[in-house]
Amino acid sequence: MKEEGPVRKVLVFGVFDGIHDGHRYFLREAKKRGTHVTVVVAPDGAVLELKEQKPSRTLAERMRDVDALGIADRVIPGDTEANSWGVITREEPAVIVLGYDQKNLKDALMAARDMLPSIEELCEIDSFEGDRLHSSILKKKNAK
């Protein structure tokens, strides 16, 4: 019987409005940084505030899409209020993995780090063909 070591919780955030290879790469890379990955999917209102447009898929659909990948251990909805950190407080991750395009989130987390004692590490994943595989780019291509 295999002995398990301590749980190292990883938390990632995203909209995940239309899963693509960049999302798969991001989640696989996050999985390498811990033993339990929770994916936090942004609620529709947060997406509207963040991107100034509604997602094309509902929160429930986006959560099902992420779960169907089989990479995450849990998929949960995010906080409805930006920078409230409720999810982080409840989940107590050791690691938060950010995408290359999540600079605003990284800055906000750095500013709030003293209020989030569970976080041992903030990791940024490089782009996986970011000029080609970004949800907003793919949406524009599909609209043509």
Structure in words:
By secondary structure, the chain is of the alpha/beta class. It has a single domain, classed as Rossmann fold (3-Layer(aba) Sandwich), CATH 3.40.50. The protein contains six helices and five strands; from the N terminus they run βαβααβαβαβα. The protein has helices at residues 21-31, 44-51, 59-68, 86-91, 103-112, 135-143, and strands at residues 9-14, 36-41, 74-77, 95-99, 121-125. The N and C termini lie far apart (55 Å). The model is unreliable at 134-144 (pLDDT under 50).
Walk across the major sheet and give the strand order.
3-2-1-4-5
Stretches with pLDDT under 50, minimum 5 residues: 134-144
Shape: globular
SS element count, helices: 6
CATH superfamily: HUPs
Number of strands: 5
Radius of gyration: 15 Å
Order of helices and strands: EHEHHEHEHEH
Estimated helix fraction: 25-40%
Please identify the top-level CATH class: Alpha Beta
**Ends apart, CA distance between termini:** 55 Å
Largest sheet: 5 strands, parallel
Strand content: 15-25%
Return the CATH architecture. Answer: 3-Layer(aba) Sandwich
SS class: alpha/beta
Query: What is the mean pLDDT?
Result: 89
Q: How many structural domains in the coordinates? A: 1
